Amino acid sequence: MPQFSKDTLLGLAWALALVASLSVLFIGEIQGQTPCVLCWFQRAFMFPLAIVLGLGLWWQDQNVGRYGIVLALGGAIVALWHMGLYAGLIPEKIQPCSASGPSCTDANQTVLGIPIPLMALVSFALIGVLCALSLKEKQV
Fold it and tell me: So which domain of life are we looking at (predicted)?
């Protein structure tokens, strides 16, 4: 199995956070798709991930992964809730989205047929795993 340096793992986590952040900005600002309430909460975790991990790499802080884990875990919890709403596992009456705004569960919540909440959940999970691996004493 290949061994990766802490910088490589953190660089991959940062790149994923940066791509995710730029993607949601593209969806919202260029495509004009207004984010729902849960999307905003997920952005509140993803945007700082791109900044914190990027600064950690710039300053060569080998322990920045612990902050990445915390932010990724918070975002993953929101994304999991969002995915539960999207999949219909959570009752509609407790959805945080208003009737007048964008819905958490409508067809606009997909990109290339993949639900946005699922993409967010996978992104947060991968970032969290990469950050956790960067903190291991012996690299995998």
Answer: Bacteria
Residues in the chain: 140
Exposure string over 100-124, b if 16+ CB within 10 A, otherwise e: eeebbbeeebeeeeebbbbbbbbbb
β-partners of residue 49 are none
Tens place of pLDDT per residue across the chain (140 aa):
468 899 999 999 999 999 999 999 998 888 787 788 888 999 999 999 999 999 999 999 989 999 999 999 999 999 999 888 888 887 766 555 655 555 555 666 777 888 888 999 999 999 999 999 999 855 44
Local structure of 114: helix, strand or coil = strand
Domains of the chain: 6-135 (1.20.1550)
According to DSSP, the residues that pair with 115 across neighbouring strands are 110
